[in-house]
Design brief:
The chain has about 425 residues and is an alpha/beta fold. It is built from 14 helices and 13 strands. Mean pLDDT is about 95; it is low at about 1-20.
Length: about 425
């Protein structure tokens, strides 16, 4: 495929088909690093920044963060903390105030009671998940990862000597793991099952009934833990609250590690505060690892996070209202584009768009769209719209867009995507 001038790889994404030896890292680098790839979403965002720095106007639909500013009362709490001299080390597992705020949220939202021994706080939910895997995986241990998946899960497993077991969850099943598929994937080596709900990149979420059905399978496998990534639980479009496995099936409470944070809900991606709630022995192990790595999260960010969780929630309600309107408009537009389709997400701010009917067709320049990565490149080259190809998420034949951007940008981008699809042909005339 052709590319924009001076940029041979306009997707900015690592290959999804290369072997661990093709990462480009020197052989002196540890094997655990050579077998993983940089985050495709991070690489895509960097590519967009590069293109923009060259003066190109790019409509960026790759960014996985809110386009809103952090609420004023949260910023004010951080300023007060600085002025009060709260700029020293904190306990490894977070300040008492933040731990109390986390416990309060889980009590109010799910009816879960959490002692300090079951709560850990880290530099973002990503760090908490990584440390949980580091604390529990040995070489050859397996982690079940339903696909489509957040790009980091498989590589975090590999980095910690584990083996990701990818379980395909097709669109016909709502992109969700079924009890039958879960049961077939479990082995004696299974240590974790990952449940991201609402999910990235699909926005799909499990119902109470679906979680109970999965729990019935898991109850028969007492050595298997469940990592529930609930970072999008407040960006939610159904009437009832998003359910959590730990609350739905109390018998699994000591095997569920619930992770969350303030990044998405409160537009605090740069503040880097996430948390995990689970078995005390696991939390102790995570705290031990953190004590030897980052020591503790930022004291100022923790003060801000406590204010976010305990303060007014008007910001959350208003941003969800805006996201819902963007979601509805974008889904309607894209479902009217020939060769594209997408389901309506339950939460989060992503759409996973089916572009399988565009694959195999030709651009006006005679180049064949061989896969979803080629399609994403076509959108960028021909219309300057940046998306992330689905294979990066274990979903070949799809691409992901974020609607965490303005309505004007989304409207323009959708029109450009439609134009890019319209110019594809089933034959080449070159």
């Amino acid at each position: 495929m052709s590319s924009l001038p001076g940029l041979p790889d306009t997707t900015g994404l690592p290959s999804t088909t290369g072997s661990p030896s093709t990462t480009g890292l020197p052989s002196t680098t540890a094997a655990r690093v050579r077998r993983i790839k940089p985050s495709p979403s991070t690489a895509a965002a960097q590519r967009v920044r590069t293109l923009k720095s060259q003066g190109l106007t790019i409509l960026d639909l790759t960014v996985g963060e809110p386009d809103f500013d952090t609420p004023d009362h949260v910023k004010a709490a951080a300023i007060r903390a600085i002025e009060a001299g709260e700029t020293k080390y904190t306990p490894v597992n977070g300040t008492p105030e933040l731990r109390a705020a986390i416990a309060g949220k889980l009590r109010a939202r799910h009816g879960l009671e959490c002692t300090d021994a079951r709560i850990t706080v880290g530099g973002g939910a990503k760090q908490v998940i990584f440390l949980a895997l580091m604390a529990t995986l040995d070489e050859g241990d397996e982690v079940i990862v339903p696909a489509p998946y957040w790009v980091s899960y498989p590589d975090m497993v590999r980095a910690n000597d584990g083996t990701p077991v990818i379980v395909d969850c097709p669109e016909t099943d709502g992109f969700k793991l079924t009890p039958e598929r879960l049961g077939a994937a479990l082995t004696e080596r299974t240590r974790w099952v990952v449940l991201n709900t609402p999910g990235n990149p699909t926005g799909s979420a499990y119902t109470v009934g679906e979680l109970r059905a999965l729990a019935q399978v898991l109850l028969a496998h007492p050595r298997v833990r469940v990592l529930t990534d609930e970072i999008y639980d407040e960006i939610w479009y159904r009437e009832e609250d998003a359910p959590s496995l730990a609350a739905v099936e109390p018998r699994l409470a000591d095997r569920v590690f619930l992770t969350n944070g303030v990044s998405k809900t409160y537009a605090m991606t740069g503040w880097r505060i996430g948390y995990g709630v689970g078995p005390a022995d696991l939390v102790t192990a995570i705290n031990t690892l953190q004590s030897q790595t980052s020591s503790c999260p930022s004291s100022v960010s923790q003060a801000a996070a406590a204010a976010a969780l305990t303060g007014p929630q008007d910001f959350v309600r208003e941003t969800v209202r805006v996201y819902r309107a963007r979601r509805d408009a974008t889904v309607t537009f894209l479902n009217d584009v020939p060769r594209l389709s997408c389901t309506v997400p339950d939460g989060g701010f992503y759409l996973l768009v089916n572009c399988q009917d565009a694959i195999g067709r030709f651009t006006p320049g005679g180049e064949r769209i061989r896969n979803d990565e080629d399609f994403a490149r076509h959108l960028l080259d021909s219309r300057q719209v940046a998306v992330i190809h689905g294979a990066a998420y274990g979903a070949p034949g799809y691409f992901r867009i974020s609607f965490a951007t303005s309505t004007d940008i989304l409207t323009d981008a959708c029109a450009r995507i439609a134009a890019a699809c319209a110019e594809l042909s089933s034959v080449t005339y070159v």
